[in-house]
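Please predict the structure of the following assembly.
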Amino acid sequence: MKKALITGITGQDGFFLSRWLLGVGYDVHGFIRRNSAASLGNLHALNQDELDRLTIHWGDVTDHTIVDTVVREGQFDEVYHLAAQSFVSASFTNPSLTYKTNIEGTLNFVNAIKEYSKHTRFYFAATSELYGKVQQTPQDERTPFYPRSPYGVSKLAGFWTVKNYREAYQLFMSNGILFNHESEHRGKEFVTRKIAQAVAHLAKGGTEPLLIGNLEAKRDWGFAGDYAKGMWMILQHGFADDFVLATGENHSVREFVTEAFRVVQMEIVWQGEGTQEIGVNPKTGNTLVAIDPQYFRPAEVDTILGNYTKAKTLLGWHPSVTFPELVKRMVEAEMERS
Ligand code: NAP
Ligand code: GDD
């Protein structure tokens, strides 16, 4: 039986990856930082049998002493390093924490593997935020990077740390350059989940409009379950490498909002401009969406679009959920929850 460690297992991707690895027969271990409620986050969505089969190690990725111990004692076949301060917006207000968690946390793991567990295959959660102010469209593994946030910069350092350890010490360390992927387990502060929640609230007669930032930003949005499987496929490949996972299609935040209202059979019309723009229900005249400048970022990634040809050709990976299916899934989950 293969043995894998997942850091960031309480997050969105941690949930889908642990479910996938348990499903294909792995002995799955999670690395979780202590919080006062001893909360397991998204792992609560696993069933009891899945939970019983998990082994938890309590630790923070910035503490190299516990990272060394867990890696040395665990002798894992695979380590999936997903733990991060992953919210771009928070990286502008908390840049130091973002660097510490995302750079030092990554260095701690690759170094522990180099010192104590050379056979371990390592996956790093890199990101399309590396492309930031895009230098070519669509973006693939050869596109130059231009990060636009402390988060992007921290992940760039992580990406090169992994590549450098791979080349310098002949270790199996791969980067997954994943474009945005979403689900009903997405953190509530990310725009897709925030929209889905607000639309469900309004569809059920609520009156609080959705307060949002940049409606024009475009993202290449896929379904997180597909991407978790892709992480595993990256580590099953014959050699360590860097792979883009994306859908090859992008949509604006505005399109996501419109599609989400379509799911609950509500129409929205847009009036006004700039920060005065609002989205209105044409039947009632009620405001459904308004702009709140607090959600604009000091530097924005205006548009990203991935080319996943390499992953398709070498790994046989492809996304399985379309944009309308993804929006429907997320809005329906919120309708059931609320
Ligand atoms: P997420 O839901 O925000 O999960 C982040 C995880 O990291 C949580 O389990 C969190 O634990 C853990 N964590 C944060 N700081 C930690 C620390 N100091 N020590 C230990 N654990 C810590 O993120 P996600 O959406 O699942 O994304 C997974 C990874 O992929 C992240 O590295 C993210 O940057 C990257 N990524 C995500 C996307 C995407 O679209 N989702 C795209 C590209 C790359 P708590 O539960 O305690 O907060
Ligand atoms: N969060 C948020 N909230 N974003 C908003 C809002 C709002 O109210 N209004 C507009 N946006 C815009 C943001 O400015 C951004 O352009 C876009 O919606 C997506 O924002 P997020 O959902 O926060 O995701 P992200 O693209 O910044 O980052 C996510 O994807 C990256 C991969 O490209 C995160 O998961 C990162 O960890 C990941 O690396």
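The mean pLDDT is 98. Residues 3-183+220-250+304-320 form a domain with the Rossmann fold fold (CATH 3.40.50.720).
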